[in-house]
C-alpha cells in the first residue's frame, strides 16, 4: 500500500537521532525520509542505520545526517505497484520512496497486516533466580512473577515476543518453580508452546542451555533474562544475527559516565594534555543474546557457566561473536527502586 501521508515519515537532516527514533516508533514503518525544505530527498534512515551509527560512537544527540543512507533506492512516481513489489522483494526492502520531478511525492510499502511472520526459533527465558535484592517481596513469590502493572514481569516479556511472531518458548526454573508453571501452563492460553527446564542447582546465566531437550528446533535461539522490561525489536535482532551469519550476538547498551576530575595525559614527567571531567562512553551487556545451535550445544548437561564466559570462549576460538546495540527502552528489575520505576514505565510504554 502507498503511504498517502509520507510527510509523516519526513525529518530534517539537522534533527537528532532521538527525534528520528520517536518518529520511527510513532509511524511504525521502520523508515524515515530525510528531506530538505523543498521536499528533495537527502537520504533515508532505518533502525539499522541508527544501530550502525551507535557502533561508530554517534550518540542520540547526533544529527540524522550523520547516520542516514545518502543513496537510497527510489522509484519514479507512477511505476506500477506490481513492479515496485517485485523490486522491494528482490532488494529485501520494506518500503521505497517515490520521486516526481526530483521531489518526494509518496512512499510505497509492503507493510500489511497479512505480512505478519511466525518464527519457529526457540526463545529461552531465564526465570530461576532468587531475587534476593527484592526481599521481602520475593520471600513468597519468584521475582519473574512480581506484578508490574497488572501482569507478572515474565508475562510482559512473553507478550513482547509473541507480538514479534515467536511462539516456541522454554522457561528455566529453580526458585519456587510451581508458581510459574501453574500460571503459564503449557502456553495454550496465549496460543504458544511453553516447555519448562528445571535447574536442580543454579547453573549460571548460560548453564540451562545444556538442559534443553533434543527436540529444540535447530535454529538460532534467543535467550533473555526473565526480569527485563524492554521494547527491543526482537525481529530485527534475529534478522541481524542471521544476515551477519553470527555464531552469537550479544545485545549491548550505551553507557556513559563522567569522571569528576580533570584527567592528565603525560609522557614521563611531562604533561602532554589535559581533559576536564571527560565523559567515558562504554557498551555494557544487556542480558539478551542470540546463539547458533552449534554454540548452544557447547554447553553440557548440568555444566555451570555464565553467558559472558561462553561467548568469551567462542571469541577465543575466532567465532563470529557480534554486538547489537539497543537504543530502545530497557530496564533490569534488580532492586526495589527499579521495581517502583517499572510500575510507571510499563504504563507510559504501553507494555501492560
TrEMBL record:
<dbReference type="InterPro" id="IPR000644">
    <property type="entry name" value="CBS_dom"/>
</dbReference>
<feature type="domain" description="CBS">
    <location>
        <begin position="68"/>
        <end position="123"/>
    </location>
</feature>
<dbReference type="InterPro" id="IPR050486">
    <property type="entry name" value="Mannose-1P_guanyltransferase"/>
</dbReference>
<protein>
    <submittedName>
        <fullName>Nucleotidyltransferase family protein</fullName>
    </submittedName>
</protein>
<dbReference type="InterPro" id="IPR005835">
    <property type="entry name" value="NTP_transferase_dom"/>
</dbReference>
<feature type="domain" description="CBS">
    <location>
        <begin position="2"/>
        <end position="62"/>
    </location>
</feature>
<dbReference type="InterPro" id="IPR029044">
    <property type="entry name" value="Nucleotide-diphossugar_trans"/>
</dbReference>
<dbReference type="Pfam" id="PF00483">
    <property type="entry name" value="NTP_transferase"/>
</dbReference>
<dbReference type="Pfam" id="PF00571">
    <property type="entry name" value="CBS"/>
</dbReference>
<keyword id="KW-0129">CBS domain</keyword>
<dbReference type="InterPro" id="IPR046342">
    <property type="entry name" value="CBS_dom_sf"/>
</dbReference>
Amino acid at each position: 500500500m502507498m503511504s498517502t501521508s509520507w510527510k509523516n515519515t519526513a525529518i530534517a537532516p539537522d534533527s537528532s537521532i532521538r527525534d528520528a527514533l520517536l518518529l520511527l516508533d510513532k509511524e511504525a514503518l521502520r523508515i524515515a525520509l530525510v528531506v530538505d525544505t523543498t521536499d528533495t530527498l537527502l537520504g533515508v534512515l532505518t533502525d539499522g542505520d541508527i544501530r550502525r551509527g551507535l557502533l561508530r560512537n554517534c550518540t542520540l544527540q547526533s544529527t540524522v545526517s550523520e547516520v542516514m543512507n545518502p543513496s537510497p533506492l527510489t522509484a519514479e512516481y507512477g511505476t506500477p505497484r506490481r513492479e515496485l513489489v517485485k523490486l522491494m522483494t528482490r532488494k529485501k526492502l520494506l518500503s521505497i520512496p517515490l520521486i516526481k520531478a526530483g521531489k518526494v511525492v509518496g512512499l510505497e510499502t509492503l507493510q500489511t497486516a497479512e505480512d505478519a511472520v511466525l518464527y519457529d526459533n526457540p526463545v529461552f527465558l531465564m526465570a530461576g533466580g532468587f531475587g534476593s535484592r527484592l526481599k521481602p517481596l520475593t520471600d513468597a513469590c519468584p521475582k519473574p512473577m512480581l506484578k508490574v502493572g497488572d501482569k507478572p514481569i515474565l508475562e510482559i516479556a512473553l507478550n513482547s515476543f509473541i507480538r514479534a511472531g515467536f511462539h516456541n518458548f522454554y522457561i528455566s526454573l529453580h526458585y519456587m518453580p510451581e508458581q510459574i508453571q501453574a500460571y503459564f501452563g503449557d502456553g495454550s492460553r496465549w496460543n504458544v508452546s511453553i516447555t519448562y527446564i528445571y535447574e536442580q542447582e543454579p547453573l549460571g546465566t548460560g548453564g540451562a542451555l545444556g538442559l534443553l531437550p533434543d527436540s529444540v528446533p535447530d535454529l538460532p535461539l534467543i535467550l533473555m533474562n526473565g526480569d527485563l522490561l524492554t521494547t527491543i525489536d526482537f525481529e530485527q535482532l534475529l534478522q541481524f544475527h542471521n544476515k551477519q551469519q553470527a555464531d552469537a550476538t550479544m545485545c549491548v547498551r550505551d553507557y556513559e559516565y563522567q569522571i569528576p576530575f580533570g584527567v592528565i595525559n603525560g609522557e614521563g614527567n611531562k604533561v602532554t594534555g589535559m581533559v576536564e571531567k571527560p565523559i567515558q562512553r562504554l557498551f555494557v551487556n544487556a542480558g539478551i543474546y542470540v546463539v547458533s545451535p552449534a554454540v548452544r550445544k557447547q554447553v553440557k548437561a548440568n555444566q555451570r557457566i555464565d553467558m559472558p564466559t561462553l561467548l568469551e570462549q567462542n571469541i577465543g576460538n575466532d567465532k563470529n561473536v557480534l554486538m547489537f546495540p539497543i537504543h530502545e527502552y530497557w530496564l533490569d528489575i534488580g532492586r526495589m527502586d527499579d521495581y517502583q520505576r517499572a510500575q510507571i514505565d510499563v504504563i507510559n510504554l504501553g507494555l501492560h
